[in-house]
Amino acid sequence: MTIDWFFILEKIVLISGVLAISLVVAMYSTWGERKVAGIIQDRIGPNRAGFMGLLQPLADGGKLFFKEEIIPGNSNRFLFILGPSLAMIVACMTSAVIPWGDTLTIAGHTVSLQIADVNIGILYIFGVVSLGVYGIMLGGWASNNKYSLLASIRAASQIISYELAMGLSLIALLMMTGTLSLKEIVEQQRHDGWNVLYQPLGFLIFLVCSFAECNRTPFDLAEAESELNGGYHLEYSSMKLGFYLFAEYINMFISSALMSSLYFGGYSFPGMDSLGLAPNLVTILGTAALFIKIICFLFFFMWVRWTIPRFRYDQLMRLGWNIMIPLALANMLITGAIVLYRSTH
Amino acid sequence: MQALTSRAKQVDRKPMTFIESIYLWNIIKGMIITFKHIWKRKETVKYPEQKREFSPVFRGLHILNRDAEGRENCTACGLCAVACPAEAITMEAAERKAGEEHLYREEKYAARYEINMLRCIFCGFCEEACPKDAIYLTETFAPANYKREGFIYGKQDLLIPTPAEKNKA
User: Fold this and answer.
1) How many domains is chain A partitioned into structurally?
2) Is A28 a member of any domain?
3) Does residue A105 sit at the B interface (CB-CB below 8 Å)?
4) CB interface of A with B, residues 288-327, below 8 Å
5) Domain range spanning residue A285?
6) Domain-located, residue A305
7) Where are the transmembrane segments (chain A) (predicted)?
8) Among A232, A269, A297, B64, who pairs with A152 as Cys (CB 3.0-4.6 Å)?
């Protein structure tokens, strides 16, 4: 058996590229968050470190590295370190199945801009994302602090509740597309138009649930500083805290990419196949289109954060169980009926 | 019962309409409001480069005044220290010797005059109490130092330069 060195090289470059891009995007999301917050509140946001404050994330990262590393005496040392590591690893793992673009042709080789086109891509994402709660849970529990524990319990029950509605809203989409592969879902949208047009309610449910999954406002009860002194990462300092905060932004980036791919055509854009340009150029334009969509979603995440106040915990649970899940079920029922009607007529 | 103020407003306790109860519409309204703020004028004053204009009665750090010939006005009467509600001012008086007439305006002067800027509340009572026009509050503010001792301002920090020194500089 010969080893396809080009294939291995291609995947290594792709993996490092995707990892680097998600880290850089997460880094600059912190800058973007502060800029958006500033602008929405009639301020100007960070503007000291570098041009328009663009070096601010580096300064923040440097600060986190040089902060004192504190591990509480009564904490479980192993789990305490495992928590943020797990949060970070899980956040980075999800990007493996997202199609970042169509195929490029380099020196006779066809390179797919997707790390792994597994036929159960969505299932993989859900499996990995639900591991994310372990990072928070372990961190909160190992801190040996009641506030951290309360926050992580909140986070766990919130994520589990909203994952249900999220999965149900996706099932409606999957009944329509008939595949679990993200690449195929994007390719279908390339020809038939964006899924958000066929699944507006499903998209809305998915959107709200991804806010809850990312622990973003208005669902950031795990970080409710006014009630919990800071949340599940209360006892964390230095780069371990940085990992938790960073993981949140990577999750935001990945869920933006996922929403773009599932409902907004991913790397496809209207008129993509009638441009008459070289296929490689079209692929690059498609990737650019995907990133524009992602940036729009990231802005939306921030815009919502600086508009809507936090839910109360019982409101959050009521919204999840009494409204989101029945809505998602109804959406599933209607989609199922239409799919059945279409297949018989 | 008579209303206490003319601006009192009846609280609206009508039950929520359907549109209100699904909450989404109100979220969109709120998002439109925040979105409009993107084009609003930014209130930030870019501080070190740009300074806010002070009101004419702004009270900043103190100075000790001299007369036109460059002699210290302060006679160490202690009225400022008595007026000071924060007890930030201490002084030691001394008698003017012969030959020091060009340094001090009157026969008595402050050999030591200290203001603890960490205690000072910048009320300006010292300025009002002074019968000799010796102490004034300026528009300088935000003193910075690494140590607490650095905030105890002595005479060398407070006295304005003499006309001769001013000409040199």
Assistant:
1) 1
2) no
3) no
4) 303-304, 306-308
5) 68-109+116-344
6) yes
7) 12-31, 78-101, 121-143, 155-176, 196-214, 241-264, 284-307, 319-341
8) A232
